[in-house]
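Example 3.
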Amino acid sequence: MRIPLHRARGMTLAWFLACCGVLLAGGADASAAPAKVHPPKSFEVIDLPSDDGSAVLVVWTCPDNDVKGVQYAVEVAKSEADFASGGFKTQVVPLSSEVLASSKPECFGRSVENKRRYFAEISPAELFPPPDRPKLTPVRLNELAKTRVITAGELARALSVLQSTSPEAKLSAAEKAARKWYEDFAAYMETKGREAQEEQKAAINRATYYYRLAVLDGERKIYVERDGKPAIVSGAARPNFFKWGKLNNLLFSLAFCAIVFAFIEVAKRKPGLFIRKIAGLDAVDEAIGRSTEMNRPVFFVHGGSSAMGDLATIASVNILARVARKTAEHDTRIRVMNNDPIVTVVSQEVVQQAYTMAGRPDAYNPDDVALVASEQFSYVAAVSGAMVREQPGAIFLLGSFFAESLLLAETGASTGAIQIAGTDQYTQLPFFITTCDYTLIGEELYAASAYLSREPRQLGSLRGQDVGKAFLMVAIVVIVVVMTAAVAWKLDFSWLRDLLQPL
Amino acid sequence: MSSLPLQPRRIDLSRWVIYGLVCLAVLLPYVIYVEMPFTPSKEAKGLYDQLEALKKGDHVLLAFDFDPASQAELRPMGRALLLHCFRKGVIPVVMTFWPNGLNMDKEIIEKTAPEAGKMWSREFKNGRDYVFLGFRPGDTSFILLMGENLKTAFDKDYYQNPTQKLPGLTDVNTLKDMKLVVDLAAGATVQAWIAWGSDRFGFPLGAGTTAVSAPDMYPFLQSRQVVGLLGGLRGAADYEVLLNVNGDGRLGMQAQSFTHLLLVGLILFANVVVFIRWIRGGKD
Amino acid sequence: MSFFKRLTLPLLIVFGIGLLGFAQEFVPHPIAHDFTEAMTTCFKIMGGFAMILGIYSLTHLHVTRIRQQGPGWGYSMFVFLGAGVMIVLGVWNDGVGPLREVSEGKTYFDWGYDYIYVPCQATIFSILAFFMASAAFRTFRARNVAAAMLLIAAVVVMFGRVPVSETVGRWFGTPDVFTNATDFLMNGPNLAAKRGIILGVSLGGLAQSLRILLGIERSYLGGQD
């Protein structure tokens, strides 16, 4: 039987609409159906490595079917029973690349599995902070008096200050003094209170705590379970004795030291190691000789910001010993300019010893090795004035210099003196090079002692240092070539990059 | 041994001519004003953008680690940074490791706060809108102490107000609570702030240095240990241009331009003379 | 009692403290932090006592010069005059001084700081501008290829650092050329040279520290090598 056309069209349209409806409903159903969130199978609590004992890490592996944007909750309690009674704290951890274990290779290593492991850093002292510091109320003050922290007189004074409501202008001198004492006392108690709190925090961090881990499904928590119950894992933070992230630094330092020791031994057996000429150091005798001929003093100028802890200052003191001995032997006056009291004392000792060794202890004048000024530009003014007045024949500018370098060097150049400068400050080298006759650049200053004494052990250490530098140069060239090749030919040398990056 | 008489010093005329010309070059811009627009450097822009991104109520630590000798270059930077903080409603917390600069730092803040008030028709009060902590010695160890507990490190501000009670420091307990730290350094304190501050406590660090020390900062800029750099008077001028305010930085650019032109001219003149002599076969 | 021979005990102290200082860099335990704090406090205390020695040295030098009316003894008078005035102003009446405050809450000490100390410091620093000019004029001569390269680099950087370079650049349609050239020189060759020097200085410092720790270098103790 033939179906009329209009009816066929209608039936077709109805089928079509019904199919669309089914499909749409199915899609809506599909989108409305919640994704299944699964907790990890297990988790662990480990001490945060290379720290001072202030945190632990809760670590877990993501399940394969983890939903994007999921959050985890770490629950921390002081005892297992606190979970039942609700006495626990919660830290929510939204998953991101920052809490991925692979982002912290210094803690988790470089395993491929770390790309699926997440961690939460828990500091117990932040979750369970110590009680607030007690305020200085009359009750507290009485307690302090009972425990003899303050005397009865001080208690009375403190109470009178607390009770006083007069403005500052209307107080008598005694009342102002009492108020000032109370403010100082309050500040002292604040400081003591904070110190006590820091100790309490350290103790809180080191206690053992109990942890539960749950994945958040909206408002619902789905716990990691063991034996049908939420799994509880205990852990405690411990202060560590080594920063594993600095292992590469330590190994390099030890390797360098070993090379230096080795060459010191070599130098002891084979003295006379070759060392290239350093013009500035060879000119020391020439400079002193010139001053002697002209009957002018020798100026030895320490850096305007030198402290005895600076390596450049120690190096310059080594050169001072030799210069002072030469000037003593030649009966030439030496004036040592210092801007630091400790450097002054050391320089005096060194110069006096040099004069004694030259057989001229009577010629030593402590006023020639004096503190000139302790301020940078006051020092410059004083030394420049002395240079212009006394017209030295030779000027040594050795140490750690900053802005005063050009001022001193240019003033010295205007007097016509021969100038030998040396500094480890990179930014001041151009000024010395343009104005001085000889300049010791960076490590040449440190090598001065070995160069001038030619002592085998010191020469050996210089050779060891040079070998270390050669190794670094070769390593830089090789690594640049390798990494360039890696980029050009798309090779994977990420392990090399990771090894060299500061961990 | 009797000493030889001092020989009469040969007066080096060229040196004095140069000094006179430099003096003129520095003074000339005060007589003749020449408009010289310039583009701020990307290093200065880096620091500006970092501060510009902060929200009202955030805290910025400004370490004014310089003394009066370096104020010509660093003081305009300090003023510009303070103005920027006041404009954004960010709270600047100022301190110093240099005792010689303490009075000068106080003067900078006490002059800039009312100036900002006039610019933006607001009153900026000490303790609420800005905090001046004053001076403490110690460099590295003190940075560590500030990183652990700022209010222990500074129990009182410069004006002897307890820091616990200052409204401007309500939400600040350690350096980690600072959204930005800027060190204006005449010495080597930036390196201490990097090693003991930003690397440990994770705050972004900016630097302002004298022009001579600015090259020292480029490695730190490249490794992003320093987010922005103001180098010398040019850096101060760059920041003032970005902030659209007038100040000593922009004014100083005139004098600096003339002086640099003079130096370049003198150097080229000397080399031309040498070249001509060489062509004629004479000695240098 | 050979242990207390002149150099033995100091060298042992140097070695011990040096080794501990090196080790604490690698130890996160709070004990390392406490050690660092204790050492820092000791250094500050020693610095305070050393200042006494420094002041004595300074005073002795200038008193002797004044007494003997040696060359420049007038300047020595200024040393005591300046220090004395500022100390009196700073200490008397908490800095207010013998008379009332000068103006708007400023003390006489503030006045001395603002109108004597600050201008003096700034003046000395300002002399750098003149010295820089004379040093540059004397030095930048194209005597050979290396000197010529130095000259060109210096001229480009000096020019590129000031706004006038952009103005000149605009005349030729390239306002950024000098700035870009300066940035290239500062970020490229300059930085490479700086890194090379820093590497050398760091390794040299490591070697020298080793020599000091091991007692191979002893000049700083005042004794012979």
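Chain C has a mean pLDDT of 84. The longest helix of chain C spans residues 30-68.
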